[in-house]
Amino acid sequence: MTALQLKDPSLWRHQACIDGAWIDADDGATIVVTNPSDGSGLGTVPRMGATETSRAIAAAHAAGGDWRRRTGKERAAILRRWYELMLQNQEDLAALMTAEQGKPLAESRGEIGYAASFIEWFAEEAKRVYGDTIPGHAPDKRIVVIKQPIGVCAAITPWNFPAAMITRKAGPALAAGCTMVLKPASQTPFSALALCLLAERAGVPKGVLSCVTGSAAAIGGELTSNPLVRKLSFTGSTEVGKVLLEQCAGTVKKTSMELGGNAPFIVFDDADLDAAVKGALVSKFRNAGQTCVCTNRFLVQDGVYDAFARKLAKAAAEMQVGDGAASGTVIGPLIDAGALEKVEEHVADARRRGARVLVGGERLGGNFYAPTVLADAKPEMRIFKEETFGPVAPLFRFHTEAEAVALANDTNFGLAAYFYGRDIARVWRVAEGLEFGMVGINEGLISTEVAPFGGVKESGLGREGSKYGIDDYLELKYLCMGGM
Ligand SMILES: NC(=O)C1=CN([C@@H]2O[C@H](COP(=O)(O)OP(=O)(O)OC[C@H]3O[C@@H](n4cnc5c(N)ncnc54)[C@H](OP(=O)(O)O)[C@@H]3O)[C@@H](O)[C@H]2O)C=CC1
Ligand SMILES: O=C(O)[C@H](O)CS(=O)(=O)O
Question: Where is the signal peptide (predicted)?
Fold first, then answer.
């Protein structure tokens, strides 16, 4: 077992929370949570199913009336308190996250700050849910548009950002006056449960935010079919997103989908190469490459291909791999053996088809994989078509701008893209030509609460964060007053 020394041990919850009660599964079943660094057991959480989920939905529905009747200002004050409590407990929350997810402690601290920023942002947005008046279409008519909370919302979140993916949904939902039932990833439930405890301490009323841990299919089946749930927000793989979209169709639920990615990173001949390498490192190797906005394909123009390859390989070779809790670790473990196998398969396929390993290219024991740079990668390789979700940087060569944009867009995904170049006319041409929801231009780290996060094509539906993010939790109502 991993021994975790928390300043506030009460943050480490081994029960789920439904309607303000911390409880076990009805049948007492549990899930073991392990540390991906060494496979040691961290503890257990309840393995719940449809019955417990149905109770959480009913509680959310019951609590919704009072919560939506509160003013935006009242909800804002509670959310602000939640934000403050997250920052006050940042060290403990980061320790829990590194233990269950594996990312380096510095990244976990950063994620807690990032996660808290969504609560801070939507505490402010709660006070600014404005409607419209519209000039009437007849002298005796007056038209008003108001915005109202959708109602009971469901959230299903992934393991790679165990805190930020929750607050990116719960923040706007609660700010808008909605209530929420959350199902976190089974591999990282402790972060979710600690956040829910802090929400309770901040004054979020019982029933407004419940967290159900356990069987994804059973819990998901109830969340997507129960008619009391009016919206589902999901972050995870495109494959699961499609299943959930189908399941939501039966009750015509609103959905927000943040799904997979296949980000290109284009380096033009006129790029600042040192800046491009710096951007490449953060966009590729953050969370050991396990983020949906990680670069998956490096497209490098002829004139700078060899220099960029040399610089990137040198930097990758210097990255320290190890337990996320160990000092100096830059690359932690992959989440599990399945993730490691997928990375190995991608590298093996690339090598069979002619790729050269400049650095790395091997597992390091356990769930650890060496930061890897592959030269001479080709579009027929799996690593071009599929999301690797690991610390592997394949370098593809291109000749012309048109070829680079065509290669970049040659995917069913459309989440994030990046490019480095300095010709201003080309910057505009390429930015407008890329079929992605987010584009980093001479920048490799683009995620922030103030900007709309989301993708096109099979990378998802809707946007999270920014002034647009709360709209996904509101319904427009048109009032037409006659006889005036
Ligand atoms: N666009 C974005 O912002 C993000 C996209 N992703 C994408 O997600 C993938 C990696 O994350 P990963 O967690 O493996 O993704 P998954 O899609 O496997 O899991 C995500 C969540 O969905 C749950 N889930 C899985 N199957 C079902 C089901 N049938 N019904 C209901 N819920 C289900 C999981 O529960 P359980 O853990 O219990 O299986 C987990 O909570 C990558 O493709 C990545 O690109 C990840 C993060 C962000
Ligand atoms: O889950 C993810 O990959 C996150 O959305 C990435 S980010 O928001 O931290 O960039």
Answer: none
Statement: residue 2 has pLDDT above 70: no
Domain check: are 380 and 435 in the same one? yes
Same domain, 153 and 170: yes
Q: Could you tell me the distance, in angstroms and rounded to a whole number, from the CA of residue 289 to the centre of ligand 2?
A: 11
CA torsion, ordered 321, 322, 324, 325, to nearest 10 deg: -140
* Digit-coded pLDDT (tens) for 37-92: 999 999 999 999 999 999 999 999 999 999 999 999 999 999 999 999 999 999 99
CB 168 within 8 Å of CB 156: no
Tell whether ipTM is more than 0.85.
yes
**478 CA to centre of ligand 1 in angstroms:** 36
CB distance 259 to ligand 1 below 6 Å: yes
pLDDT digit string, tens, across residues 201-210: 999 999 999 9
pLDDT of 105 higher than 70: yes
Atom of ligand 2 nearest to the CA of 235: 1
Ligand 2 atom 5 nearest Cα: 292
Nearest by Cα to 152 from 57, 37, 275? 57
State in Å: Cα 159 to ligand 1 middle: 7
Rounded Cα–Cα distance for residues 257 and 326 (Å): 35
Does the pTM surpass 0.90? The reply is yes
Count of structural domains, the chain: 2
6 burial via Cβ count (<10 Å: 0-12, 13-18, 19+): middle
Rg of the Cα atoms in the chain:
23
The answer on 131 and 184 residing in a single domain is yes
Q: 2 in a domain, yes or no?
A: no
Among protein residues, the one with the nearest Cα to ligand 1's atom 39 is 216
Q: Is residue 398 part of a domain?
A: yes
Q: For a pLDDT cut of 90, what percent of the chain falls above it?
A: 99
Same domain, 159 and 207: yes
Residue 255 belongs to what domain range? 9-259+459-479
283 and 367 assigned to the same domain: yes
